[in-house]
From TrEMBL:
Organismal lineage: Eukaryota, Metazoa, Chordata, Craniata, Vertebrata
Ranges for the TPR repeats: 370-403
Principal location listed in the UniProt entry: other
InterPro entries: CS_dom (IPR007052), CS_DYX1C1 (IPR037894), Dynein_assembly_factor_4 (IPR052004), HSP20-like_chaperone (IPR008978), TPR-like_helical_dom_sf (IPR011990), TPR_rpt (IPR019734)
Entries under PANTHER family matching the protein: DYNEIN ASSEMBLY FACTOR 4, AXONEMAL, DYNEIN AXONEMAL ASSEMBLY FACTOR 4
Key word Acetylation present: no
Pfam family, one: TPR_8
Domain CS: 3-87
Name the UniProt record assigns to this protein: Dynein axonemal assembly factor 4
Annotated region described as Disordered, given as residue ranges: 189-217
Keyword terms: Cell projection, Cytoplasm, Neurogenesis, Nucleus, Repeat, TPR repeat
Subcellular location: Cell projection, Neuron projection; Dynein axonemal particle; Nucleus
Length: 424
């Protein structure tokens, strides 16, 4: 049975009521006080104080001070007036019960509204933080693009200057060659002219000392005149174009060496993965269109990983995976982040998922499979599971046998396994 607190004192003004409730010998916290616009309750087991107020109050601005065994209430009235009493007089039991239940119901509704308001405020804060992060990243991306553009313009100017210098040098060489060729032609003309002069002089001397030519001599004149004709060079051969047809191939391997069925299956799976986007995530409705693109989120995660912000990169990859869980590179990149954060079991899970999606094995996904095996093997070794780690490194070596780094790391793991065996 509760002990009702009957001793209290109160006074009022036109706008407020001041209530003093003694609670000596007990510890009071704000959780022991319940107040609505017309109902006040203080429950400190085994003590209980309850009051149906004479008129409504402003429960939002009203206060309660706890100290020295006394609770001092300052209750602000909704309407300026003087009360005849603190509590409602001439109220039967049923009315009191109704007012009590109505006050509790209002308190529950108010608490629910406050919870919803806090939830909305929290979502707005998250959205604002995400937008602020996006703006900073956009500014950084723009700055980097501006630097790239300036560097590109600089390189373009240098290239144009070099081309101009090369063009001037070629022009100078061409002019020089034309001059040399002209000189050679002039020399040939002079030699030919000298030869013709010598022939003409010899012909004149012969005609003076000889008799009239006979019929047989016409042939000699004809032969001599033919010798004086300029030699005619043959015309250059005409040019032609040879057409070569190549076999249409997606992968850079010869048709006889490739596995066409597996390659086509891999291309089909990649196309389906690009088209698979989860659209039933209600909490992502407020995101921009570009933020719903897994490829854009992957690039964002890559930039954050490059800057050392591994947690932010994991968050970006998580959202991308929620949008599309069929892209192996998302799991592969997230595994790298987990390795940096020492989340070794998660790194193993993501690497295994990436290997599961990187099927069938084709030349296009060789590099990704090597990275998946190496990252999972690294996680195994950091968990001191050297046998499993060595198996993954050897699988990576089968795909890329010329990789000296992987071969060196695999040799180190073998030495560790041998040392562990000897110690045991």
């Amino acid at each position: 049975m509760p002990v009702w607190l009957r001793e209290y004192s109160w006074r009022q003004s036109g706008s407020a009521v001041y209530l003093s409730l003694p609670v000596r010998g007990v510890r009071v916290t704000p959780a022991n006080i319940f107040c609505t616009d017309q109902y006040l309750k203080v429950s400190i087991p085994p003590f209980l104080f309850e009051a149906i107020l004479y008129a409504p109050i402003d429960d939002t601005n009203s206060t309660a001070k706890i100290g020295n065994g006394i609770i001092f209430f300052t209750l602000y009235k909704k309407e300026v007036a003087m009360w005849d009493s603190l509590t409602l007089a001439n109220a039967n039991k049923e009315k009191l019960q109704y007012l009590r239940e109505n006050a509790i119901l209002k308190a529950h509704e108010k608490a629910k509204e406050e919870t919803e308001a806090k939830k909305v405020t929290k979502q707005e804060h998250k959205k604002y933080a995400l937008e602020a992060t996006m703006k900073l990243e956009e500014a950084e991306r723009k700055r980097i693009e501006d630097l790239k553009e300036k560097e590109r313009q600089k390189v373009t100017k240098e290239l144009e200057l070099w081309k101009k210098q090369q063009k001037d040098a070629e022009k100078q060489k061409r002019v020089q060659k034309e001059g040399e060729l002209h000189q050679e032609v002039e020399k040939l003309k002079e030699k030919k002219k000298e030869k013709m002069n010598k022939t003409r002089i010899a012909n004149e001397g012969t005609s003076k000392t000889s008799l009239k030519p006979t019929k047989g001599c016409h042939g000699s004149y004809s032969m001599f005149s033919e010798n004086l004709k300029e030699e005619q060079l043959p015309a250059p051969r005409s040019t032609a174009t040879i057409k070569i047809n190549f076999t249409s191939r997606v992968f850079p391997t010869a048709l006889r060496e490739s596995r066409v069925a597996e390659e086509e299956e891999w291309l089909r799976k990649q196309a389906e993965a690009r088209r698979t986007v989860s659209a039933d995530l209600s909490e992502l409705e407020d995101l921009k269109e570009e933020e719903k693109n897994p490829d854009w989120l992957k690039d964002k995660g890559n930039k954050m990983f490059a800057t050392g912000n591994y947690l932010a990169a994991v968050n970006a990859y998580n959202l991308a995976v929620r949008l599309n869980n069929k892209l192996p590179l998302l799991y592969l990149n997230r595994a790298a982040c987990h390795l940096k954060l020492r989340n070794l079991h998660k790194a193993i899970e993501d690497s295994s998922k990436a290997l599961e999606l990187l099927t069938p094995p084709v030349p296009d996904n060789e590099n990704a499979r090597v990275k998946a095996y190496v990252r999972r093997g690294t996680a195994f070794c950091q968990l001191e599971l050297y046998t499993e780690g060595l198996q993954d490194y050897e699988a990576a070596l089968k795909i890329d046998p010329k990789n000296k780094t992987i071969e060196r790391d695999a040799e180190k793991i073998r030495h560790l396994i041998q040392g562990t065996t000897q110690d045991s």
